[in-house]
Amino acid sequence: MKRLLILSGVVGAVVAAAPAHAFVECGNPPGAAANVTATHVSCGDARAFARKVARKKIAHSRWITLPGWRSYYARVHRGGGKYDVRATRGGKVIRFQYRRGGSSPSCDPNYAGACLRPDVSDYDCAGGSGDGPYYTGRVEVVGDDHYGLDRDGDGVACES
Question: Cα(126)–Cα(105) distance, rounded to whole angstroms?
Answer without folding.
Answer: 23
